[in-house]
Amino acid sequence: MSVTAAQGFEAAGVAVGLKSTGANDVAVVVNRGPKKVGAAVFTTNRAKANPILWSEQVIGDGLVEAIVLNSGGANCFTGSFGFQTTHQTAEKAAELLGIGAGDVLVCSTGLIGTGDEVFRGKVLDGVDQGIAALSTDGGEAASLAIMTTDSRPKRSVVTRGDWTIGGMAKGAGMLAPGLATMLVVVTTDADLDAAAADAALREATRVSFDRLDSDGCMSTNDQVTLLASGASGIRPDPVEFTSALTELCLDLAAQLQGDAEGASHDITIEVVGAANEDDAVTVGRSVARNNLFKAAIFGNDPNWGRVLAAIGTTDAAFDPYDVDVSFNGVRVCTAGGPDRPREEVDLTPRATHILIDLRVGDAAATILTNDLTHDYVHENSAYSS
Amino acid sequence: MSVTAAQGFEAAGVAVGLKSTGANDVAVVVNRGPKKVGAAVFTTNRAKANPILWSEQVIGDGLVEAIVLNSGGANCFTGSFGFQTTHQTAEKAAELLGIGAGDVLVCSTGLIGTGDEVFRGKVLDGVDQGIAALSTDGGEAASLAIMTTDSRPKRSVVTRGDWTIGGMAKGAGMLAPGLATMLVVVTTDADLDAAAADAALREATRVSFDRLDSDGCMSTNDQVTLLASGASGIRPDPVEFTSALTELCLDLAAQLQGDAEGASHDITIEVVGAANEDDAVTVGRSVARNNLFKAAIFGNDPNWGRVLAAIGTTDAAFDPYDVDVSFNGVRVCTAGGPDRPREEVDLTPRATHILIDLRVGDAAATILTNDLTHDYVHENSAYSS
User: Fold this and answer.
1) Chain B closest-CA separation from residue A113 CA (Å)
2) Its family (chains A, B) (predicted)?
């Protein structure tokens, strides 16, 4: 059900030829209210695609009525023509829905530099067809339309009493902090004001999508959007709502990790004993981005030396001779020296757990990443994306 | 000739079984004077191997008489036993040479965590045999003894008038700023005081080894050492000496790049038009470390979008819509938009040139890197290193 699980939302996914496969490639999600609240977080990449530049303006007043998303072209670095394409996309949706263009978000994903007249024509066609196809069970079709190299759609629903949160996500590569080539739309029928929606979204993404660092490469097009219709008539406690939203975002993040391009291991890097949360995140991210560590995991090699070498490049508080490292529950390094023999570690399961104890404090954080594989190299060298 | 090209030096390389192949694995270089000047730069990784911890103490007074290097084991994270091994190595060399242990540098390279009693016995044996084999034409044997996954030795000689600089290097992986798994020994018969040697070495490494960023992974064992014998009797102009030393270091850095693990392209990333040199280095490094860019080059794909996305993650001064990018002389991106068709770019040669013009100032810097290939993944996943 994804984005149509919550009351007050309609969605559609249609195929207009942006994908050569004939699969769905334009999605539309509309908030029928009664409230039309929106919040969004965007890539922190300074090279931002046209839809990001547009959506950053739209989100300013916290009022969003619809969102149009396309795969098959990022519309990034396509100049003023590309920005006009995004603008026309919002205007066409607004016209057909009888709303203002300034309340329509736009997202695009695909190859950078793609955004010519043919692309524009297809996207506008998709708006037409998508709005004609809107329905309260269009969530599944929409989730298919945003896929690029994803092997499967990502959907999640969380319900608390009488209100619901539903979401869809795409992204199997370039996942990184700052949200890389990740498009996420989350809808809820909870009654939220714009400030509450924004606060909950920022907190939920901070500990979910922002800690998914599949390959360290940050996209130009990432956007995570939360739309709230208030259709349940219930205004949840902010802490409870944030908790439910975080649960949903963590589920979607795990689905993104599990479908990362070419990966053969889903690696959870749990850092404990840190002086503070920032240190724990820094250490986890440094390990997650270390190609030698990632290649070792692909080779089922519990190479703790590469873990310590990666930690050593950070400015986190730690003593290299007082760090413990476990691979899948086996402590291979104690106090910066060898402990259990590496033969005891079984790295054949896809799920991989690295526990790093910095032994200086009580803070912790978990970073999700993937291994570096032949398939990753193949998928990112054999085709332009 | 490498480290024995300059007058006043003897060297040897011997095989003591640290390498299972039976190849040379311990090198000794001795400065016979008349001057015994030494300077060194070390990995900036906070997780430092035992030989680094030792050598940092030795170099303090600028006086170095000998250096012992071994492959086949990094002696890193091997506890106090490992530090004692390094200490004993220096003491044994000192005893045999009739000098002080505090004037003997030690370097190790190989698998982290390797440094048990067997390792110690072989290294000490290597000191014995190496010192017995010292000769003024031992530079070649020494350059073979420091190789690990290198497919060939790296040697270079630069002569200016009556003085000479010679050097050897090893390292085919983990090359990164801060000097990663790179061992370099450079000797000269120029007459330098310790301060001049240190200043020249820092400047030369800053623009050579520090700008070689093959895979972004920083080692625990890197060390670049300069030994000066003064045997030529000539005290060169500091600018001229630094220039010659830089030329030699750039040659060795290019040899390291050309032999990087699994690489199929040697990529020169030239950043011009930067506001300052730091910005140019930051931008070049960000592109050099972007796995998607590196995989694209492996696939002979001039994917300039990935270049701009990598630039966008930096804090350098630039406008994403006023950046030009060329691949091998073909301007594929002008002012942040498409220019020449990608079909015009020929990326089949191993030598690859990326030119990035930030168009905000006059500063420039060049970063050397490699592509991300199947062989890189294979070499770093199939074996522990």
Assistant:
1) 6
2) Belongs to the ArgJ family.
pLDDT mean over B58-66: 97
pLDDT at B221: 85
Grouping H, G, I as helix, E, B as strand and the rest as coil, residue B50 is helix
Residue B216 and residue B260 in contact, taking contact as beta carbons nearer than 8 Å: no
Residue A174 confidence (pLDDT)? 43
So what's the architecture of A266-381 in CATH?
A: Roll (3.10)
Q: What is the 3-state secondary structure (H, E, C) of A259-310?
A: CCCCCCCEEEEEEEEECCHHHHHHHHHHHHCCHHHHHHHHCCCCCHHHHHHH
DSSP assignment string, A156-189? EEEEETTEEEEEEEE-SSS--TTT-S-EEEEEE-
Q: Which of A78, A181, A225, A373 is catalytic?
A: A181
> Binning pLDDT at 50, 70 and 90, where does residue A151 land?
confident
Instruction: Note whether B219 contacts A310, CB cutoff 8 Å.
Output: no
Separation between Cα atoms, residue B57 and residue A62, nearest integer Å: 60
Q: How many CB atoms lie within 10 A of CB A203?
A: 17
Average pLDDT over residues A24-41: 96
pLDDT classification of B350: cutoffs 50, 70, 90: very high
User: Distance between CA atoms of A169 and B227, rounded to whole angstroms?
Assistant: 58
∠ CA B150-B154-B157, nearest 5°, is: 175
Residues with Cβ within 8 Å of A80's Cβ and at least 6 positions away in sequence, in order, are none
Q: Round the average pLDDT of chain B to a whole number and report it.
A: 91
B348 is catalytic: no
The identity of residue A259, as a single letter, is D
Measured CA angle at A317 (ends A315, A318), to 5 deg: 110
Of the pLDDT bands very low, low, confident and very high (cuts 50, 70, 90), residue B47 is confident
Range of weakest confidence among A116-120, A219-223, A370-374:
A219-223
Interface predicted TM-score (ipTM) of this complex, two decimals: 0.77
Q: Is A313 on the interface with B (CB under 8 A)?
A: yes
What pLDDT is recorded for position B173? 46
Each residue's pLDDT tens digit, B27-42: 999 999 999 999 999 9
φ, ψ of residue A14 in degrees (nearest 5): -135, 165
Q: Of A307, A311, A344, which is closest to residue A328 (Cα–Cα)?
A: A344
Cα A280 from chain centre: 21
For chains A and B, what is the number of CB pairs under 8 angstroms? 193
Distance between start and end Cα atoms, chain B: 29
Chosen from B215, B377, B378 to mutate, greatest number of chain A CBs within 10 A: B377
Q: Quick check: A180 pLDDT over 70?
A: no
Q: Does B84 touch chain A (CB under 8 A)?
A: no
pLDDT, tens digit, 9 for 90 and up, residues B233-244: 999 999 999 999
pLDDT, residue A97, reads: 98
Give me the amino acid identity at A78.
T
* B336 with A77: Cβ contact below 8 A: yes
- DSSP for residue A76: -
Angle at A15 between CA A13 and CA A21, to 5 degrees: 125
Tens-place pLDDT, residues A79-106 = 889 999 999 999 999 999 999 999 999 9
| Residue ranges of domains in chain B | 2-257, 266-381
* Burial category of A116 from C-beta neighbours within 10 Å (exposed 0-12, middle 13-18, buried 19 and up): middle
Choose the mutation target among B42, B44, B46 for the interface with A, i.e. most A CBs under 10 Å. B46
A380, B312: Cβ pair inside 8 Å? no
Kindly state the average pLDDT of the residues A368-381: 85
Residue B100 has pLDDT above 90, yes or no: yes
Q: Domain spanning B2-257: which CATH class is it, in words?
A: alpha beta
CATH topology of domain A2-258: L-amino peptidase D-ALA esterase/amidase (3.60.70)
- State the residue for tokens 């978000």: A105
Residue tagged active-site, from B181, B188, B220, B246: B181
